[in-house]
Amino acid sequence: MPHCLPHHLDLTVSDVARSMPFYDKVLGGLGYARTEDYAGGVPCWVIGEGSGVFSIGLHAAQSDRPHDRRAAGLHHLAFHAASRADVDAFHVLLAREGIEILDAPAEYDCTPGYYAVFFADPDGIKLELVHEPPAGARTPAE
User: What does pTM read for this prediction?
Assistant: First the structure.
C-alpha cells in the first residue's frame, strides 16, 4: 500500500461560534482557507491541492464534558513548520491575537533540533507548531 497521509480531522468543540474566530486566526496563519462546503455547513479549513488536500472541520459537542487530553482521545495536534523562524513568527501572531500560549518557542527534547511552540484552543485542545529538521540534517544546535 502506498503512503497514506491524513485526509481530514474533525474536532468537537463546545461552542462553534466561539471557536471559529480562533481557528480562522490559527489555521489562516498556517495557510489554510476556510470553506463552508463540508457536511452541511460545518466550518472547515482546507490546505493542499488535488489528492493532497487536508481539512479540519468543527462540530458542535453533544455533551458538556470538558476536553481532557489525558483521557482517551486526542492528546494534541502538531503542525509542521518549514523553519524555526516560522515558529517564532507564529508565536508573535499567537501573542498579538491573545491566544493562550502553553509553552513558548524553544528546543524540546524530542529529537535533535525539535523546535516548537505549544498553545491551546478555546476548549483547551493543545496545538503545536514544530520545526523538526530532516533526520540527516539534525544537529544539537539546529
Answer: 0.88
